[in-house]
Amino acid sequence: MGKIVVIGSINMDIATDLKGMPEIGETIKGQDAVISPGGKGANQAVAAAKLGGDVMMVGMIGNDAFGADALANLNSFGIDVTHVRSVKSTTGLALILREHGDNRIIVSPGANNDWPDDLPLEEIIPAASIVLLQNEIPFHVIEKVVEVALKHNVPTIFDPAPVEQFPVAFLQKITYLTPNESEFKELPADILQQKTEAVLETRGKEGVRIHRSRGKEVIPAVSVEVKDSTGAGDTFNGAFAVAMTNGESLPDAVQFANKAAAQSTTKVGAQVGMPNLEDITNTK
Questions:
Q1: In a domain? residue 27
Q2: What are the pLDDT digits (tens) for 182-208?
Q3: Number of folded domains in the chain?
Q4: 117 annotated to a ligand binding site
């Protein structure tokens, strides 16, 4: 098994349930707040580690209690945190307000936007078997990571969430893109003409549509009783990275990731719901 290097965001999530949103100047009572580790980068690292992956997390935290908790959480899953740095900014926070089943989320990136220039990417990336990225850190950092990975022939996975108008030349350097159905519609049609081997369009209950230069293939979804879909996309990405570093074919890797994502929805909570390897082994 090769090393999976996850370069991305580390947050703490604070969630509460409300009976109604407050008006300007109004104070209302919510339910007890739930504080839990989050951030797409950290979520994907945990998903991969729980499935047996050899994972290194590269990211930024603040020199505060939330940062200490986030670091301890990554350590608890056996993730290499050598390059998780504490910076002057506060740890990234996501404030999640739930009302009648709907979410309103406010993200304060904090330390996720505070990346130093001396990060030794030329040491970190060549030692990786695959690099996993998301769009919750500064884009110039993502671009630099992709350039170094390309230079050293290290494959990359990019989860383009939150989606924006990415330069076509950048997208064409990514090995595997993993947009959901709505994000896929925002991507240009010609990205498969260069270094991109496949675009994996995740479509929920409709499975995953693999787009390759020679055509399309659909990997069906796994039917489960869904309790909470939070973190399913992050689970898919982490599981896909594990399968690829284990030498699986692309369709088999997607099928494995599908099973992991499905299992993650059967429990409440993002990282809590992420499956272990035995959970996938027992999934039909």
A1: no
A2: 899 888 877 776 788 999 999 988 899
A3: 1
A4: no
